[in-house]
Design brief:
With 268 residues, the chain is of the alpha+beta class. Helices cover 24% and strands 26% of the residues. The protein contains 8 helices and 13 strands. It has helices at residues 7-16, 53-69, 85-90, 102-105, 129-137, 180-183, 229-237, 240-244, and strands at residues 23-29, 40-44, 73-76, 97-101, 108-112, 151-158, 161-162, 167-168, 177-178, 188-195, 212-222, 252-254, 257-263. Strands 3-4-2-10-11-13-12 form a 7-stranded antiparallel beta sheet, with helices on both faces. It is globular, with a radius of gyration of 19 Å.
Length: 268
């Protein structure tokens, strides 16, 4: 329980009380450029990892579970190890990633016009349950598409990723396991991007680097379980006292996890 004088901590504790979600991210802003086709939310890592037959079979069970619950789900174990230097130079490859069509994946979405009052971040984003169901199913007219005029207030949460413990949890039939068991000491990159020529969220088109236009990118790391990247640079810049106090200095740090963000020129 946060102390009585910790207003933000108390508000956060009340917001999560009685809910299954392990985290929640909220965003609000406008696009400076209209994406071609769909916007994708991707969780990816920079370097390839070796995945054995047992691990791969284990992961496919988890991925099938995710696929059944998410329209527009796409994943790749990465193909960097099969590519030539020329392929890599030209961006003709995929990194290991899990991607979701953003309009289907968002837990809550409110689209506001120029004269509308904007929802307040840090509270429940007010989208009706019926609207959520229709949007996630991809029903006609449920989502009007992305544009540069409206302001988008977005929230996404999950009960399956515990960033504080750095574990995957609550997947039926699978015991909780550490994220590092799969990706080692690497940080997680969260990307928001469009893919040139990709109009079908349920298609099998690869998400090649050369076809991706990135709108936003942030990195999630852990003080105990990850090394390197922007997270490490951030940790190295601040003192141990600031880490223990969960200080906010440009990026966001809270006890064990660190978020390092890089807003692209296509968003505001």
């Amino acid at each position: 329980m946060p102390p009585e004088d910790d207003v933000d901590g108390r508000r956060t504790q009340e917001h999560f009380q009685g809910k299954k979600r392990m985290f929640e991210f909220q965003f609000q802003g406008r696009l400076k450029q209209r994406p071609e086709g769909h916007l994708w939310l991707s969780i990816e890592i920079d370097n390839p990892v070796k995945i054995g037959m047992i691990q791969r079979a284990f992961l496919k069970v988890a991925l099938n579970f995710i696929s059944r619950r998410n329209k527009g789900f796409h994943y790749s174990f990465g193909d960097l190890h099969d590519k030539t230097e020329e392929d890599i130079k030209e961006g003709n490859y995929e990194k290991l990633h899990l991607s979701f069509a953003l309009d289907h994946a968002l837990s809550r979405l409110v689209i506001s016009g120029e004269e509308d009052d904007l929802p307040r971040l840090g509270t429940n984003i007010p989208e009706t349950r019926e609207s959520v169901k229709r949007r996630k199913r991809g029903e006609s007219g449920a989502f009007p598409g992305w544009n540069t005029r409206n302001t988008y207030t977005m929230s996404i949460w999950s009960e399956y990723i515990d960033f504080f413990l750095w574990k995957i949890v609550n997947i039926p039939g699978i015991r909780p396991f550490g994220i590092s068991k799969i990706i080692g000491k690497q940080n997680i990159n969260v990307m928001y991007y469009s893919v040139e020529g990709c109009s079908d969220v349920d298609g099998n088109q690869p998400h090649l680097r050369k076809d991706m236009k990135v709108f936003a990118h942030y990195e999630i790391g852990h003080l105990k379980h990850t090394e390197g990247g922007n997270t490490q640079k951030y940790i190295n810049k601040i003192s141990k006292t600031e880490i223990e106090d969960c200080g906010t200095i440009g990026n966001v740090m809270n006890e064990n996890i660190c978020f390092s963000h890089d807003l692209e020129e296509n968003t505001s």
